[in-house]
């Protein structure tokens, strides 16, 4: 069948590809350890599942308003006030099928063909592909270890053109684990002052920071808030990836455009799942602290273990649940030209799956998720170490 030019230009998500290969090997009985997970390994808290069951039993199994249930939008408004000190009216909140779809709809609703969007790299795989899908032009601003993979005002300035419509920020960051400080965000916002450039900030890993507190760029001033669209959701904070609930907060006109798009595409998010998100945001925030503390311990362990791998260097991540080590030197020392080939052979020979950095715009690196028990994680690192020792 002849597919569209647009769809042919899209690179499928590499993370999902590796996860699928690992899943397939597992199904064949191979003892695979996957370090490619982009989701917490806990189950959704019982309290949320109970709320969903109760809602479904009570008949909340229908279409809802395209911007989301009013009760959920109110719960999100309260969460934004409580956690971010930001005031949003319900008309400034839109609920979509996960942050991923929310982002896609934002790009669709704001970008015209040729509009440029600055995306700092390393970036989460979907930004650039989604921007291309709607006819926008992703402009990559390459960051490095010297700035902890964070965009600087100088780099931002260097990538601004007359066609720049938007900047995408992601903090805490997937894949690097970097977290922007208030001052760093302020410096970026200052560059954009007196322009009409939109800031889309993906805060999906908001609750997972270790030692550094998450700051939302929208909280810097009313002027910055007016140009910012915050994207977030329950996937990572409440281990609800499969429920598909995310949201956007920002300009009311954009929010109604997102609702209009939804009314002609998916109608709404599944009603029971929205009830799950209401329960999540009404839950004691202390519960997410329990998960955060577990991830912090895992981060410390993961960082210690990765530092033991020969020829591999890694910055200590401050958020999310990924390490982003430099692996090119190690790959070359083992006789591989690229990290891609190196990673593939580790999966084939040692049955450890993780994602090469090429999909994140950083081919010399790889992303290692520590969203799994420490014992399994440590075994995976031992297998990688064994592989490196055998090849050198
Ligand atoms: N944004 C980032 C940076 C992510 O890592 C992910 C998931 O991996 C998403 C958004 C998507 O989240 P959701 O499950 O809400 O679609």
Automatic annotation (TrEMBL):
Q: Which SUPFAM superfamilies match?
A: PLP-dependent transferases
Gene source species:
Jeotgalicoccus nanhaiensis
Q: What Pfam families would the database entry show?
A: Aminotran_1_2
**Gene Ontology terms, MF aspect:** transaminase activity
The Aminotransferase class I/classII large domain is annotated at 31-384
Q: Looking at its record, which EC class is this enzyme?
A: transferase
> PANTHER family, from UniProt?
ASPARTATE AMINOTRANSFERASE (PTHR46383)
The protein depicted here goes by the name Aminotransferase
Q: Which positions, given as ranges, span the membrane?
A: none
Q: What is its EC number?
A: 2.6.1.-
**InterPro entries to which the protein is assigned, alphabetical:** Aminotransferase_I/II_large, AspAT/PAT-like, NHTrfase_class1_PyrdxlP-BS, PyrdxlP-dep_Trfase, PyrdxlP-dep_Trfase_major, PyrdxlP-dep_Trfase_small
Family, per the entry?
A: Belongs to the class-I pyridoxal-phosphate-dependent aminotransferase family.
Cofactor(s) needed for function: pyridoxal 5'-phosphate
Q: Keywords, A to Z?
A: Aminotransferase, Pyridoxal phosphate, Transferase
């Amino acid at each position: 069948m002849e597919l569209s030019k647009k769809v042919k230009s899209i690179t499928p998500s590499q993370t999902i590809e590796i996860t699928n290969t690992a899943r397939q090997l597992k199904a064949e009985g191979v003892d695979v350890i996957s370090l490619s997970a982009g989701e917490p390994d806990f189950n959704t808290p019982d309290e949320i599942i109970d709320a969903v069951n109760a809602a479904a039993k009570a008949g909340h199994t229908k279409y809802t308003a395209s911007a989301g249930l009013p009760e959920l939008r109110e719960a999100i408004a309260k969460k934004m006030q409580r956690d971010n000190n930001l005031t949003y009216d319900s008309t400034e909140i839109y609920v979509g099928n996960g942050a991923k779809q929310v982002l896609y709809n934002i790009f669709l609703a704001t970008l015209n063909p040729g509009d440029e969007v600055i995306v700092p790299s390393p970036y989460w795989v979907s930004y650039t592909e989604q921007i291309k899908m709607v006819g926008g032009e992703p402009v990559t601003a390459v960051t490095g270890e010297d700035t902890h993979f964070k965009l600087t005002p100088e780099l931002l300035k260097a990538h601004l053109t007359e066609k720049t419509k938007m900047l995408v920020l992601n903090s805490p960051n997937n894949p690097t684990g970097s977290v922007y400080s208030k001052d760093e965000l302020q410096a970026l916002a200052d560059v954009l002052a007196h322009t009409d450039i939109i800031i889309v900030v993906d805060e999906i890993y908001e609750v997972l920071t270790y030692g550094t507190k998450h700051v939302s760029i929208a909280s810097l001033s009313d002027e910055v808030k007016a140009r910012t669209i915050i994207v977030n959701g329950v996937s990572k904070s409440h281990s609800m990836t499969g429920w598909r609930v995310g949201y956007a907060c920002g300009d009311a006109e954009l929010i109604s455009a997102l609702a209009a798009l939804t009314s002609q595409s998916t109608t709404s998010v599944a009603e029971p799942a929205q009830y799950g998100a209401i329960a999540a945001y009404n839950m004691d925030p202390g519960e997410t602290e329990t998960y955060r503390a577990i991830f912090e311990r895992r981060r410390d362990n993961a960082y210690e273990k990765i530092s033991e791998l020969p020829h591999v260097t890694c910055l200590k991540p401050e958020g999310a649940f990924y390490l982003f080590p430099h692996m090119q030197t190690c790959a070359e020392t083992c006789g591989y030209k690229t990290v891609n080939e190196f990673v593939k052979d580790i999966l084939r020979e040692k049955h450890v799956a993780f994602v090469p950095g090429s999909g994140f715009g950083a081919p010399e690196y790889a992303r290692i998720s520590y969203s799994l028990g420490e014992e399994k994680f440590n075994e995976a690192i031992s297998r990688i170490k064994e592989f490196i020792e055998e090849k050198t």
